[in-house]
């Protein structure tokens, strides 16, 4: 059997604290195969975001991380910041909960997507990157993408902003897209649409998608796989 794309083993994350350490994630195991849509569900505070950030190497410096996060034959926990930043955005892309704080207010969304295209491939001209940005906006279902590429994030609705985040995530044909509670801030109908866009992104790029969401209950974050 082929090796999983991502294999998380005994992942634990602790934040030291004078009034008692915070054990945010305790001994989590899961595998994600190439092209799989993978769901992580858990109540608020159960460690969904912290475990996603651990995979991306984006936890604050004081976080104590143990276990193994194998991706592409390497343990990501052994890599330094430079090696990790090469993987981020190119092989692994992330869609954050709050697109407004992930997007820059001072550049148009088209320029931001174009920059995401060029950051990992400087051989792409600015013009080609801008054209690709418009194409990506079309893929994620932004109407009139040529015009909307010149808009700023605050001119979009929450659902549209999350579509822009997904466009940025797929800009470099990643192998894994991590969506950390991508629908939390959205109303129910828009939530369903964003999950459809993520599914479409998976189909188009062949990337695996790891998406987390909140449930109300007393269970810790639980990984679930679906084909
Ligand atoms: N930088 C940090 N320093 C200290 N504790 C932290 C830090 N980040 C997260 N935590 C704690 O880790 C635990 C898990 O947080 P996490 O954000 O992963 O939960 P979550 O399941 O994503 O919740 P939500 O659904 O509300 O986003 C929480 O108790 C949180 O307070």
UniProtKB/TrEMBL annotation:
Species the sequence originates in: Naasia aerilata
ABC transporter domain mapped to chain residues: 8-225
Protein location: Cell membrane
Taxonomic superkingdom: Bacteria
PANTHER family reported for this sequence: DIPEPTIDE TRANSPORT ATP-BINDING PROTEIN DPPD, OLIGOPEPTIDE TRANSPORT ATP-BINDING PROTEIN APPD
Family: Belongs to the ABC transporter superfamily.
Entries under Pfam families matching the protein: ABC_tran
Protein name as catalogued: ABC transporter domain-containing protein
Keywords: ATP-binding, Cell membrane, Membrane, Nucleotide-binding, Transport
Membrane topology of this protein: Peripheral membrane protein
Gene3D superfamilies linked: P-loop containing nucleotide triphosphate hydrolases (3.40.50.300)
């Amino acid at each position: 059997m082929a090796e999983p794309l991502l294999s998380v083993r005994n992942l634990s994350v602790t934040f030291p604290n004078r009034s008692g350490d915070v054990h945010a994630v305790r001994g989590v195991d899961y595998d994600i195969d190439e092209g799989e849509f993978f769901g992580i569900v858990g109540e608020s505070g159960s460690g969904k975001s912290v475990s996603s950030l651990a995979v991306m190497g984006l936890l604050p410096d004081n976080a104590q991380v143990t276990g193994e996060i194998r991706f592409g034959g390497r343990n990501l926990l052994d890599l330094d910041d430079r090696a990790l930043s090469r993987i981020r955005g190119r092989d692994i892309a992330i869609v954050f909960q709050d697109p407004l704080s992930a997007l820059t207010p001072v550049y148009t969304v088209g320029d931001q997507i174009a920059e995401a295209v060029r950051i990992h491939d400087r051989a792409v001209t600015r013009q080609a990157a801008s054209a690709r940005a418009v194409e990506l906006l079309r893929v994620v279902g932004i109407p009139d993408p040529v015009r909307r590429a010149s808009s700023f994030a605050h001119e979009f609705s929450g659902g549209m902003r999350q579509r822009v985040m997904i466009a940025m995530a797929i800009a470099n044909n990643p192998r894994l897209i991590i969506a950390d509670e991508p629908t939390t801030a959205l109303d129910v109908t828009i939530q369903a649409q964003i999950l459809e866009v993520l599914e479409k992104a998976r189909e188009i790029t062949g990337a695996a998608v790891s998406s987390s969401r909140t449930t109300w209950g007393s269970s810790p974050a639980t990984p679930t796989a679906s084909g």
